[in-house]
Amino acid sequence: MAEDRLYGAIELGGTKTVLAIGTAEGRIVARRTVPTRPPEEVIRDVAAFFNDSGPALTALGVGAFGPIMIDRTAPNFGQLCETNKPGWSGFDLAGALERATRLPVRLVTDVGAAAIGEARVGALRGHQIGIYLTVGTGIGGAIVVDGSVPPALLHPEMGHILLQRLPGDAAPSTCRFHDNCAEGLAAGPAIMARFGKSLDHFAPDAPEFEMIADYLGQMCGQLVLTLSPQRIVLGGGVCGAPGVVPAAHRAMVRHMGSYAPAGVAAAGYMTTPALGQDAGITGALLCAAETMREPA
Ligand SMILES: [Zn+2]
Question: What confidence tens digit (pLDDT) does each residue in 252-276 have?
């Protein structure tokens, strides 16, 4: 019976990797968190957890940091692209995981996994088109349509949407590519570089707090105009500071003016993840269950 099957899930993050075993419905029955180290060591941790942990598994779902090639038809499917994480550039993640676990592997981005988790069993459930954003050491985003992440050229890079700087804001961008993208102005490192402390040290009416909320609001406004999502979920450490998401919502509505589509100003249109820290690993688990339905 399909509902008796157990699946493996991996959330490969920049600093930590979550390993889990659970059901096709996303219920986690075992988990372990390990630091993300060079690839060979992570693969060793993966093999130890899944091969020694008892129950036979059906498939493995993986949400991985990028940039990574997730198009199954590409010759370099499953490989990390150029990254500044030591040892990971060009690493064949999907192949190494298949060899280590002898399981079929379904690969999505880390943000895509969290988006799928929220779309199917979290805050985006019941919405046909939603956006999941994570604002932490960088800004990542994914679109979900009917519970899945649609095919793409590589994957969206919403964090690099260009914004209008607020008057008087001359702080250097922390993005090495852009002077005024959302990530360079409002992600965790940008906040630390500007203010010397994280956003949760400021009151919601402090100008520092309002500045970051404004930039996040601008970014979301661009996404609303382009994709017309029915709801936006904002996760990650920066959005964990109390009041950030409502403040970004107000800023977005203010920037859009009377052009905002109906419903965009409604309470809860922009919200935090219902699954909290578990959005990514839950999404990876749900993806694992899909490998049975995919064409070979
Ligand atoms: Zn950028």
Answer: 999 999 887 779 999 999 999 999 9
Q: Are 271 and 123 in contact (CB under 8 A)?
A: yes
Domain 2-112+277-293 in CATH 3.30.420.40: yes
- How much distance in Å is there from the Cα of 186 to the middle of ligand 1? 11
For residue range 32-56, list pLDDT tens digits in order: 999 999 999 999 999 999 987 678 8
DSSP-derived letter for residue 200 is G
Query: From ligand 1's centre to the CA of 134, what distance in Å?
Result: 15
pTM above 0.90, yes or no: yes
Return d(Cα 288, Cα 281) in angstroms, integer: 11
CATH number for the domain formed by residue range(s) 124-273? 3.30.420.40
Strand segments, DSSP code E, in the chain are 7-12, 16-22, 28-35, 60-64, 105-109, 129-135, 139-145, 231-235, 270-271
Question: Where does the chain hold its CATH 3.30.420.40 domain(s)?
Answer: 2-112+277-293, 124-273
CA of 155 to the centre of ligand 1 (A): 15
Averaged pLDDT score across all residues of the chain:
93
